[in-house]
Amino acid sequence: MKREVMWVKAMSNAQQSINSPSSKPNASAFLWNQHMMLNVNCRGYLIAQFMQPEPSKYAFAPNIEAKTFMQPEHPYFAHHPGRFFYIKDEASKTVFSVPFAPCNEALDKFKFTATPKQVIWQIEHLGFAIDLCLQLANDAPFEYWQISLADLTGQNRRVSVYSYFTLGYMSWMNQTANYYPDEDSIVAQYVTPYQKLSDYPKLKDTAQCTFLTSSHKPDSWCANQLSFEGVKGLHSPAGIQTVSLNNKPAFYETPVAIMQHRMKLSPKHQRRQFVFGPCHRSAEMASIRKKHVSLCEKAFSSTLAEHAPLTYENFQLQSRDAKFDDFINHWLPRQVYYHGDVNRLTTDPQTRNYLQDNIGMCFLRPSSARECLLRSLEQQFASGEMPDGILIHPEAELKYINQIPHSDHCIWLPLLLEVYLDQTNDTSVLHQMLAFQDSSEEKSLIEHIELALHWVLSKRDHRGLCFIEQGDWCDPMNMVGPKGKGVSSWLTLATATAIKVWIRLVNDYKVDVPTSDFAHSLRELQQAVIQHCWDGNWFARGITDDNELFGISSDKEGRIYLNPQSWALLAGIDSDEYKSKMLMSVDQHLQTPFGNQMLAPCYTQMDERIGRVTQKFPGSAENGSVYNHAFAFWIYAMFTSGEADKGLLNLKEMLSAMHSEQAGQLPIYLPNYFRGAYTQFPETAGRSSHLFNTGTAAWIYRIVIEQLFGLRGCGKDLWLQPQIPSSMGNCDVRYRFRNADIHLKIEFGNTLTPKLEINGRMAKDLRIENVKEGEQYALKFQLPYDKQQRQAKLILVCGVSGAGKSTLGQALAEKLGAVFIEGDALHAKEAIAKMAEGVALSEDERAPWLARLQLTAAQKLAHGYDTVVSFSGLKAEHRALLMSINVNTKLVMLAPSESILQERLLSRKGHFFSPHLLASQLASLEMPSPSENTLVIDGGQQDNVQQLLHQMHDFIAKQTPNDE
Amino acid sequence: MKREVMWVKAMSNAQQSINSPSSKPNASAFLWNQHMMLNVNCRGYLIAQFMQPEPSKYAFAPNIEAKTFMQPEHPYFAHHPGRFFYIKDEASKTVFSVPFAPCNEALDKFKFTATPKQVIWQIEHLGFAIDLCLQLANDAPFEYWQISLADLTGQNRRVSVYSYFTLGYMSWMNQTANYYPDEDSIVAQYVTPYQKLSDYPKLKDTAQCTFLTSSHKPDSWCANQLSFEGVKGLHSPAGIQTVSLNNKPAFYETPVAIMQHRMKLSPKHQRRQFVFGPCHRSAEMASIRKKHVSLCEKAFSSTLAEHAPLTYENFQLQSRDAKFDDFINHWLPRQVYYHGDVNRLTTDPQTRNYLQDNIGMCFLRPSSARECLLRSLEQQFASGEMPDGILIHPEAELKYINQIPHSDHCIWLPLLLEVYLDQTNDTSVLHQMLAFQDSSEEKSLIEHIELALHWVLSKRDHRGLCFIEQGDWCDPMNMVGPKGKGVSSWLTLATATAIKVWIRLVNDYKVDVPTSDFAHSLRELQQAVIQHCWDGNWFARGITDDNELFGISSDKEGRIYLNPQSWALLAGIDSDEYKSKMLMSVDQHLQTPFGNQMLAPCYTQMDERIGRVTQKFPGSAENGSVYNHAFAFWIYAMFTSGEADKGLLNLKEMLSAMHSEQAGQLPIYLPNYFRGAYTQFPETAGRSSHLFNTGTAAWIYRIVIEQLFGLRGCGKDLWLQPQIPSSMGNCDVRYRFRNADIHLKIEFGNTLTPKLEINGRMAKDLRIENVKEGEQYALKFQLPYDKQQRQAKLILVCGVSGAGKSTLGQALAEKLGAVFIEGDALHAKEAIAKMAEGVALSEDERAPWLARLQLTAAQKLAHGYDTVVSFSGLKAEHRALLMSINVNTKLVMLAPSESILQERLLSRKGHFFSPHLLASQLASLEMPSPSENTLVIDGGQQDNVQQLLHQMHDFIAKQTPNDE
What we know:
10-stranded antiparallel β-sheet, GH94_catalytic (chains A, B), 6-stranded mixed β-sheet, glycosyltransferase activity (chains A, B)
């Protein structure tokens, strides 16, 4: 696996930073190895788990925490687990803490940096320079920490450094912590609480100790949390008011691991290393110290540039969008690799997650994907059914959501197999013989796959639609089908998709099985969904046990779901008759500046026809967040159905959401969701869940490589069918495919058809035939420029409250076939409450709303929709903000008389605006200047529409091309 | 139920206070009603649960807490649930919080007071007077709060009061909080997290809202925790830096309930009331407000003195020990009543707890005890077996420890029945017909009891000892008998006791059943224990599945258990042959200044013969704490076996432990344990568990009434057989018995036998015959003075390290039949670690050790034991401390030459003392002055003992009477 030096260098510089602990307080980085995973935020709060074999903790909150899966939008608080260093200037007795908590004091300089293998804080405060670094051990669930300090004042000051490593409330049965002088270590021991005798044997051999050890003998120590904290609190702990720590153990008291190191500083950095992690008994400390303290020192002795190349950086892109490149080159494959490398650090990954995560691994470590396929199919039932989770450890059992019966696990098998074969051409896997969970009879992988497909096909109702049980891909959709009658349109479409893929594989890889029955089933499935679930403009989500269609236009909430539309396209229902309506419907109802919501409007109360999803907070998780996994399906469907421009636009929306201030995360992973409910809770929309376990990563990686850049294997060949819009510009791609190095240069130029040159010779078609291991391929790809598209138009309808903006705006949009945006709908709940009480918003309060309006309108225009926006627009400045986003803009100002306005406001119901605000509005109204290209009319009644259309005739007719 | 006014007045003044939030930081009070229970500590931290029907919370920690039973020594931390009020002086912007947290600032004056129905803080700070009061609603799970403020400076300052009521992390599914202006309330709503469809129906109807409402419309509010707290932390929250709160709701964010009330203060108190609690939906707020805000105002408008008499104050004592009286009169019956009134707020009380708690209710509300008996026996199996828990709610199920099979539940039935019959003479209960859990055939209560006894008797091994299963009274003793072979000596003795009681009831209440078979079984049981479990000086605890006796002198840990000794006496094995040895053994091995440990030495590692108890932290809970329930059995056995003096001494030790600084609690309840492991972890011994759920209360109440004051019903009569030592002095007792009012005056005087006068007439024997409801009985009881006892002697053996103190002291004690106390054994672990490193202790560090030594020696002397104490005693001041505790004291100073000392110290192993300290010891040695009554000898070898005994002949021979 020799690589060019140049290439390695390019890969080693991945890093993302923030320069304040307050701008994105929960921004975090994650690290993992085969034994553990941790998530550390910029303030030093930390969540870590290690496997023994089930996920366990070695540092806790100060009360008994529930054992659950990872939580979205995890809350941090003063005593949250974390790793902190108090710094005390011995002369002045001034104290602060790094990285930030628990003192939470503004620091002179702060930089938090995530790199793939290391987390770094660089801090300057009160003339001290402090670098703090975190890595993980390679082969143990241990944290390696280094703090290095220098004095910038030239006074060679003395400091004390107190490492404050939380341990928390470990157990009500037994918890103790003490210092072991022979090993310079603090070791806490506990007994995991249990009551049942049957739990003892498995607990007996687990690690029930946590240690902290240091490269340097501490000058004092404390293992007793309360005695250290004292009365005031962690921001000003009693323990560091004295010269030394109290050397106090914890005897059935909340333990902690604190060491004091005194140092005399100079401008040269002094370093201390720490190793922290779980162990089985204190007696192990001697050997742990011996091995890991030196490994820890060594880990920090190499500089960033010396790091080994990362095995997952197989696809490297250079385009004009550096942010895009950075994420696609470094962070996305890292996230993909994490999932497949450690299977989300569970012992029973959900079958669907396990298979999809390994779609990503096909590009990075195909052997894992092969193993995944075989292991999964060995746990298949002889009936063809797949279990809800795949056990990947001998002691594992199905837990949490894997105890709920789901209906979709079979359909992911051909989808993974497709990518695996395309990436490897390893057709031997097809003939691999495998037994079943409940039968020792061995059958080939081909037969296993066919059994799986037949099993899903057998679970259909009289209409030919697939039963949903207690959830399909959507876990909490648990009340649609528990009686055994409810069906899922999505699952029916997903089954069709799986069959479509299988037929393709049988053909492309020359599998010797007939496909005509499957082809017939595929048509049946498509027809069933079209016949029973088409709602006129989109597909419904399913039919309940009580035979009620849902996810349809007559629903008040959950009117439209994203997945049935995406998968209708994937399943081959992509004729323009359906596609154009679905696209328009999705863009109108589900699109937000942070991506497409999974459903809308979000449920605000329990709908017992549908279940648990409707109880989740509106805009969170499956209840209408921008659930990126579903959004990725949509993007994939855009590319596969010939809508590459829209696909790339959507993809960039996903990445820009990740970068946004609102998300509050570092752009180093795609979260499982951004908050949705954009028109219901606009103020929180776009927030990241901060959870990096998501099927999104694998799909987006696949989309970029196979669809956007069109690099797709088939048999012995690599096809090149890029779908890059010319707006993306020329690109330089290096891609390692089947151990061949491909260097692809894409250029847009004066060509009518794509042209491919391989190692200086024109290719006869768009592929590398018979790709050879170890070979280097220099490709030059010429692409034609896209056709210029017309530029969409923006019409602003402004005026004081009651002027008739909404009525007129809506009517106008209808006439023009434009999208209508009701400005008031984007006000935050708090602002609405305020205005309802008759208080005008301040400019500061109005700013986020204007920003949302701008963002929303710009997005619709970018997607090519003429757009009508109604909003007050009293100030020229506000109007200018909106007009700045588009070349083709027209302003309509409604100005009825004050008496008419009063009358209208008093008679209207259900609107939050208080009539008392009218006077203040009229006072602040700045009538448009001539330069604003304005039509002023005196009312907003329906009959004004014709008049307006007439007046705007020229504007409407104008065709401005979209220039780059 | 008419009462004398005088009496009522006496009862209404119960209160206990502390004057600092730091002396006992976790000191707490508890309140309950039929719907809820709460425990609030002096700093404002609070734990509350309400029943729906299972115990639920309405305020949480900021992370997902596990659902468990109450934890001992509960840890508090910055973001722990609590109710706090920030006070901001509007002029100076100074902020502090009451009662103490979260600002945790030293307050000018602080008083925290628990009364039976109210918790009160009285605070003065910066010229403000602030009273804070908490009560519970009568018929709803609501907290009533009142804050009242006055300005003491005469400046009529303006303040803002911010009520900070925590809500915490309510759910990962859905959590939201908002202000409802029409109801002046903040309501938080959440969806209890669940995944299984089957959990939905029962969750559906639970209260999933928490509200805060106030008597006065707030000037501003905040329902969004993070936005209020800001960056710095709760000690300096961002939310109160601004003029008003931000009126911000929480949308899937950690909620909180904060209201701002602005006030202009004067010297006259201004009041604001708050109601806080769970509800089902925000729509209920109008009716909740209407009813409860006025009830809340009313609740605080009456003064303490106007409170209604408390129904549980049926026994009122006036003796010379006011602390004793206060606890027995007010707090103990309150604790007893709490247990029986709400059954520990569980829906499935453990059978043994339920029956024993109702032993207490026999004195306070006998109807509850009757109900308990009948309900329990209806859930008996037809085999006679009792279930592990009694379900007291239709939706209840057996949880936690009730899922572990225990073997003792039957034996508590006759014990409860005895007290019930003695208190009520309600013999009708005996003939009550009842069915079974698994059979509809009805049998009389007599038959049920006999079935229960036969069932326990049937579960014995070939030796006649009772099988222990996975635990008898000791829950975590789960590995003695899981194979079905292990037996419990305690259970065998308890069975004997139960049979003994049953035979007594059959005789005294003339039940028409034969008892000869039971009498035979009783003798069998006694003999089996004597034959198989007597270890020479005490009874073993049991025999394991593998036929190993444990709880015996050859065990290194868990050598002696308290319960087998107590119950041997109760079971009638009380001949002097056994009793004197058991008493001496218990006092020598289990006695601590905080009460008797349940076992000793505490286990420091898992013993797989015995089980989970050995994994608990040494000195906590069942692993050798002063487990008060067991200690109460011991005290009961002292009284019933004619050791009333010792019984009272032990009882007062229990109460004084509750008062001690070390316990850290208010003396308003007996905790389930004080930390034990007195010689293993002396520094933490005596700490209260702060848990008030314990069988202790009922037993101690029974002991005081039936044993100490000898007020015991039998048939129609009330017997008076007090066992009060004359040291207790004259007593005045008012007792409500079967609705008769008894006024008993006890006087010690010149009489040889007890004399009883009833309503002015001499009684023919010591009873009121045929006690009549509504009657008043004035009793005068003359008792003779106790015989004077000899006063025990104290010998101190002092000298530098290596002088031979221990060797000589131990030998001396043996010769004299005295108790030996090794001073070094009472050093804290930290002190030992320090000395082992060659660092001398400071006077401050030595002080707690000296106090322990003093306490320990004084206790042995009080129990009548001659006592030899070895300790360095280098300083005259330290020796004086020890000598001050006893009249008869002798000091022996060992003074060998320095060279001998060096040699000895270097050759001895396994002792912590560092030889380097010798010089420092010799330097600080102050040789005794003549006034110290000293023998100075030059060595500590065995052959010195004879010489010493000779020299001390007069001292040893002297018989000093114990004067009061």
